[in-house]
Amino acid sequence: MAFVAAHVPLALAAQLSAAVATMYVITTIALGLWWALFARRMSLVAAVALYITAAETLWRMNGAQVFWETGKYALVAVLGLSLLRASRRVKSIRLPMLYFLLLVPSVLLTVGSLGFSAAREEISFNLSGPLALAVSLIFFSSLGLSRSDAQMLLWGAIGPTVGVATAALSGILSSGGIEFTQESNFATAGGFGPNQVSDALGLGALLCLFLVLRERRLHLRLAAFALMIWFTTQSLLTFSRGGIYNLVVAFTLVALHYLAVRRGRWVLLTAVVLLGMISASYLVPKLSAGTQGQLPARYEDFEAANRLAIMREEIDIWFEHPLFGVGPGMSKFERADLSEFVVSTHTEFTRMLAEHGVGGLLALILLLVILLATYRRAKTVVDKAWVAGMAAWSLTAMVHSATRIATIPLVLGLAAIRWQEDPPADRSPASSAIHSR
Length: 437
What we know:
Blueprint: H1 2-5, H2 7-16, H3 18-38, H4 42-61, H5 70-85, H6 94-101, H7 107-114, H8 116-141, E1 144-146, H9 149-174, H10 194-214, H11 218-237, H12 242-258, H13 262-290, H14 294-300, H15 305-320, H16 331-339, H17 348-356, H18 358-377, H19 381-401, H20 407-414, E2 418-420
Parallel strand pairs: 1-2
């Protein structure tokens, strides 16, 4: 818990100084690369990869002086180096690589339209997510982790999520009066993009749910439950509904699985009852009053006209350019002819169709095949709950956030972990290694 708590002062210090935020980024990535090259336990590499992606939003919130896609490329570098070290043991490489390669041909269209120099930014922004997804799937589907390793992975990601929640709460406390409307609120998101902050906090709440269900130590289970409530509350206050939608969909699927687990069922039901009582008696009335009644109205409104319009326009673009699409990053310029606004896509699925054509469609089908095979391969109901929860969170996030943050492809990779039984107490520290069966 000291590790998690340390992210409160770290977030506040980074908020005050971009230099501190930048040093935080450099130190984290350097440690990740070191472990990727020299760590005997691959579970450490997995943990630092998840940490990097969870910290990405905090780095962006605090203005770290690094390029925008640092989190995704750091993820690719860390996992890629680990895969090179264990290349002979890597098993599941063909389908994830084919998923990414199907998207490559349309790159020529972007270069042809914008020129190489201008095309680099569009290609980087739109293909760094699929690249990170492919590498994550290869790494985690080849990784054999004991179930006790899950606690290290989850608590490692909770730390930077506490930092994000701290930065958001600090923004609320220092803003004086906040005017709440039916729109996403930058003030309650720490002055940063509410959509990304909401996603990060919603993921943190989901990870806390897994800790509540899997953690054996009561005090840590209670701590995870309290953090889950905090993260969910902060996510609600951003007024960006995406993070809550991700959480609700994933929570529902995890709960449905755990209802079939005798011990897990009672833990789940107890947590749900407690959460319901706390929400009904305290949280909902307080949040409603504190936002002048706007919060309930915001989440009762399911209107998403702008994003639905973008999705329809991208499907129209695909129909006009069915084979290769218009090239990564080019759909927004095509849509500008229709709507007079240049707006980046929010939905990864229609983006892939519009910008990659048939290649994008095949890549989406292949991704679905990979996930279904992963779910079928899971040995226990608990393992299937993990796959369902992680996949549901990422796929739901892709509907409204594309792959803007590195956690989206990374969490989809986490779904593919090959869980093994906990090793004997005297097993060597190298127990969590690349899957070699």
